[in-house]
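call fold(seq) -> C-alpha cells
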Amino acid sequence: MSDPSWNADHEGGRLTIDLRALVANWRELGDLAKPGNCAAVVKADAYGLGLQPVSRALWQAGCRTFFVALPQEAFALRGHCPEAVIYCLGGLTPGGAADFATHGIRPVLNTLSEVAEWATLKDDHQAALHVDTGMTRLGLTLTEASELAEDTDRVATLHLALVMSHLACADEPAHPLNDQQIARFDKVRSLFPGVPGSLANSAGTLQGARFRHDLARPGIALYGGEAISAPSSSDQRTTLRPVVRLEARIIQIRQARMGDAVGYGARETLKQDSRIAILGVGYADGYHRLAGSTNEAAGASVVIDGTHAPLVGRISMDLMAVDITDPAFGHLQAGDRVDLINETYTVNDVARVAQTIGYEVLTGLGRRYARTYIDDI
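ret:
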C-alpha cells in the first residue's frame, strides 16, 4: 500500500514499514502476556509510523485494546477503529469528560480532579485509574489512591475497567526500583479488588510474568525497537522483527583528495583520496546529527548490498556524505539508493551511535520520506 501523493523516484529518502513484521511482533508479545491480554501502544502517530495503517493492521490481527497519549490521538484513532477499546494516557482535559464519553474514549484518570469530573457522568462510561508507584510523573499518589478506595460510593461511579501504573526502569532488569514498583502495585491492586491490572510496558512484558498482570501494553517492541538495554538471564527469548527500512537516494558522487575536509565545521579530514556519495537525507528527516563522523570518532554506517560504508563528516539538514571508496561500491551512481536502516543495521544501531534511544529515532522520522506499507498480512 503506497501513498499516491508521493513519487518515490523523486524523494531523497524512502521509508518502508513492514506491517507483517509489526503484527508478528504483537502476536509474539501476546503469547508472552497469556493468560492476560495484550494491548498496543500507538501514541505519537504509532511511534512515527502512521496511526491509521498501524492501528488497522493490528485490529485486523485481533488487537482490541489501544493506548494513546493525548485526546486528539484518541479521537483520531476512534475514526480508524470504531469498535476498539481506547485508553488516553494523558487523562481528561478540564471539562472534557462529555467528549470522551461521546466518543467512547476511556480516560486514564491521573488526578483527583479528573476523578471528580468523571464521577459526574450519569452513565456507565468506563475509565482507568493510574497510580504512581515510583515514576513521579502522572498518577495518583499511593496515599490518594488509599483514600479514594475507602470511598466505595465514589469508586463505583468511576466504572473502573483498569487500574494501572508505569515502570520507570524496566529496561534495566537489575534496577531495584523494579521490585519496589511491583510490590507497590500489588498493594494498589488490593485496594481495588476485582479491577483488572496493567503494569507491563514492552520491557515489563519481556521480563516475566510478575510484571504482566491482566493487560500488557507494549509499545517500542512492536515497532522493532530495543526495549531492554541490558537483558538478564530471566528475560524471555523472542524473535521480534525489525519493522522499518530506511533508504536514501544518492544525489551526487564526487572524487575528493586526501586532506579534504567534509561537511560543516570541517570536523573530518580525509586520510586518502576518496570517492564520496552525497545522500538526500539529513537531520530534518529525523536522522540524528550526532550520528555523523569526526576525526576523533567514527559515526554510523549505511548498508550497500550487505556491506557497510561509513558516514563522513557531520550530518546536515538535508544531506549526508558516505565514503564509497571501496571497490565493492564501484557500481554506484547518482540515483541509486542505500540503506540507512534495515534488518541488519537497525534503528537501535543508529540510536547507539547518535547517543540516543530507538524511540527517539523512530518517532523523529520525518514526513519527507516516500512511505510504503507492506500489508499483505
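The chain has 13 helices and 19 strands.
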